[in-house]
Write a structure and sequence with these properties.
The chain is α/β, with parallel strands linked by helices and about 325 residues long. The protein is built from eleven helices and nine strands. The protein binds phosphoric acid mono(formamide)ester.
Length: about 325
């Protein structure tokens, strides 16, 4: 499962597409985070992308990613074209590649693409004209790089930019999570001190993705003393039958509530990419509690996506 790390940097070392955080140079990642933070600080609105058109090409549902990319595009002065798969000619059998080529032929230079297939966005990027840039807004289980970016921005705001002393635990359905993959790549690149991964064995990925992580199936133990808890959605739409016994069992063993959260550091923060399954992986007392940064993540998504679009298209 590889979102083509080599395909996103051109021969001069410039970021041409953003397909994955895997293999993204630390300086590039830190540069995007610094630019996003500057945009947060300034409440920035500019016209750097005036005259450019960006299409949000989503073949899977989305609320946060699609709308925050649309908002980011507007705040940079560009035009946004929305694409709704359910009312498009894909319902008549048109392929994703033909759809992309036709919209590109209209003069659109930026594409924000979500697709259910691993590698689908990289495949479109390989067919793009030289001046066209693609952002992966989530492909299959493979990568969701702008979610990883906004998660790191949120962690930096809460805990500082030096991650060397940071203890982080990623909890839940890591196996099906493109968010977990992007977060793991980013945390490693930024030098996180300790990365724990916790979930039932049936929902953890192969060993290669977990290299260097402390793996646990016991949430109470995994939470002990951590600075940040990154909860994941149970992805029932990508899941074969039988990977979890029941939602009640899952909630009992891997659901985060305020009582359990007391095992983490007293100033620990909680992240969740959304959408949340309340009462399954996370309870209301945590999701809406004082340690939750979940809506901060959403707010940061606009700035993180502005930084990416400006870098690729500016
Ligand atoms: N976090 C995230 O990708 O949410 P959406 O599916 O609503 O975009």
């Amino acid at each position: 499962m590889n979102a083509a790390p080599d395909a996103q940097i051109d021969a001069t070392g410039r970021l041409r597409h953003l397909l994955t955080l895997e293999g993204l140079p630390r300086a590039t990642l830190e540069g995007l985070l610094a630019r996003a933070q500057a945009m947060v600080d300034a409440g920035e609105v500019n016209t750097r992308l005036a005259g450019i058109a960006v299409c949000t090409l989503f073949f899977e549902p989305s609320t946060r990613t699609r709308l925050s990319f649309q908002r980011a595009t507007q705040r940079l002065g560009a035009d946004v074209l929305g694409f709704d798969a359910s009312t498009s000619s894909t319902t008549k059998g048109e392929t994703a590649l033909d759809t992309f080529r036709n919209i590109e032929a209209m003069g659109v230079r930026g594409f924000v693409v979500r697709h259910s297939d691993d590698g689908a966005v990289a495949a479109l990027a390989s067919a793009a004209a030289p001046g066209t840039a693609l952002v992966n807004a989530g492909d299959g289980r493979s990568a969701h790089p702008t979610q990883g970016l906004l998660d790191m921005l949120t962690l930096q705001q809460a805990k500082g930019t030096d991650f060397s002393g940071l203890k982080v635990v990623i909890v839940g359905d890591v196996r099906h999570s493109r968010v977990a993959r992007s977060d793991l790549h980013a945390l490693r690149t930024l030098g996180a001190g300790e990365i724990r991964v916790c979930g039932p064995a049936s929902l953890l990925p192969g060993a290669s993705l977990l290299a260097g992580c402390i793996v646990s199936h016991d949430l109470d133990a995994a939470l002990e003393g951590v600075d940040a808890v990154m909860m994941l959605r149970l992805q029932r739409e990508r899941m074969a039958e039988g990977l979890v016994d029941s939602l009640e069992d899952y909630h009992r063993d891997y659901g985060l509530d305020a009582r359990r959260l007391r095992r983490a550091a007293s100033d620990a923060v909680v992240l969740h990419p959304g959408p949340m399954n309340r009462g399954v992986e996370i309870d209301d007392d945590v999701a809406d509690g004082p340690q939750s940064l979940i809506l901060r993540q959403v707010a940061n998504g606009v700035a993180a996506r502005m930084a990416v679009l400006e870098t690729l298209l500016g």
